[in-house]
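Q: A reviewer asked whether we had any structural model of the full assembly, not just the individual parts. We don't, so I'm hoping you can provide one. Inputs are below.
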Amino acid sequence: MNITAYVVLSAILFTIGCVGVLTRRNAIVVFMCVELMLNASNLALVAFAKQHGNLDGQVAAFFVMVVAAAEVVVGLAIIMTIFRTRRSASVDDASLLKY
Amino acid sequence: MVGFWILAPIMVLCALGILFVRKAVHAALLLAVVMICLAFLYAGLDAPFLFAVQIIVYTGAILMLFLFVLMLVGVDASDSLVETIRGQRVVATIGGVGLGMVLVIGLGQISLGTAVGLDDANSGGNMQAIANILFSRYVFGFEVTSALLITAAVGAMVLAHRERLTPKDTQRSLAAQRVQDFSEKGTHLGPLPPPGVYARHNAVDTPALLPDGTAAESSVSRVLAARGTVRSAPATADAVAEIETQLGWAPHAGRDAAPPATTTEEAPATGGQETGGHA
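A: Here is a predicted structure for the entire assembly that you could use as a starting point for your response.
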């Protein structure tokens, strides 16, 4: 069995997540695209674990999931706080530090 | 491998959908599909532990968190189409396509050969093997993870907590405020009029009619007024015959000839029966 297809799928998903982060304006959707990129890298890690025949890749994917969970919790709390003060979840509106 | 070729197109289509759907809730649901498909790919890659973790942590916890925040922020908070930086969308798309081509062509150049497979590593059970590695070689990272998780939990609590700056309104203070408004500004002391009274329609989006036939604006919720979905009561009263034909009811004799709802007292009762099911 060859894992090239899995890695190519992972690259495609990562690219889609990347474009999403760059183009979408809603902060929550941007966050979802970040999650998509993390998931794509997880798929590559698990595929390479199978390629090399040891479980280090799966442990790394597990750690990525833990970090993603922590990141989502803090990130969504920040989005909530910004929404509470500015009544908007758009990334363009939170530009006060510019001035 | 058959499962892969079924799941991969679904995943790519759903991921592309995240880029193009207008509503954030739809994006969250498409992301859920991608994550569940990913879990099945993990199962096919000899990672049953990650299969379970993917379903429980990602689909169960993280996406539910996303949906909760979406409901708090407002489901209709969709993207603005105005570009703050000119040409950003085009440049980002070109850059993304370039990155994807570089990655895919680069992966096409190499040959990974036949996979070793995890049959040896998983011989004593996948979960036992992962635990052996996690609690020996990666035990320090595992402990640091606990610090990260507790910091994230405390941080989210601090960010989401709101301090009450003013004392809470009690029933007594609200009553005092109401009487004060009456004595100073002449605001009506009693409760607001309910919607639909004296109109031939009892839905909440139909304003009550005052004795002179004008609509009482305070009888409909100001949320409905802001959305612009308040109906005009006389127009609804005239549309009863049309509603009856839509429902397939035979028109009563005399009802068509009934005087306008604004002048009769029994109109609310009959109006409620006629259109209650429709409203």
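A: Points you may want to mention in the reply: Residues 48-73 of chain B form the longest helix (26 residues). Residues 253-279 of chain B have pLDDT under 50 and may be disordered.
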